[in-house]
Amino acid sequence: MQKFQSLILYGITLTAGILISASALLPQPRAGGPGWQYCTVTDTSYIQPVRANICYATPSGCKNESVTAPDSRTDAEVAAAQKLGDQGWELIAATHSDNHGETLYFKRLKALDNQHPLGN
Question: Is the pTM of this model over 0.90?
Fold first, then answer.
């Protein structure tokens, strides 16, 4: 009976060792969590034709793109937000100031960058 118990204990120890070793070999998530990309949309409705400016944040600064309203009844900010939404960007904040008008803030996972490159 004691031989049988020793065999069971040996089997449990071996299984635990294999599981611990396997978990140590699995890829670990990055300490900083998922990588994010950021961009802003600013209102330039005071400029004709009505348009909004998209600023894609890059390590070297802003990559700008203008979005013109498709017609006089459509807000250029809405057109820009729709474009970004189609590319996987998520609206995370909006601000308004008397000096700068409205600014919309967006983010998306960097993994989506391969599907929709910046500005496309």
Answer: no
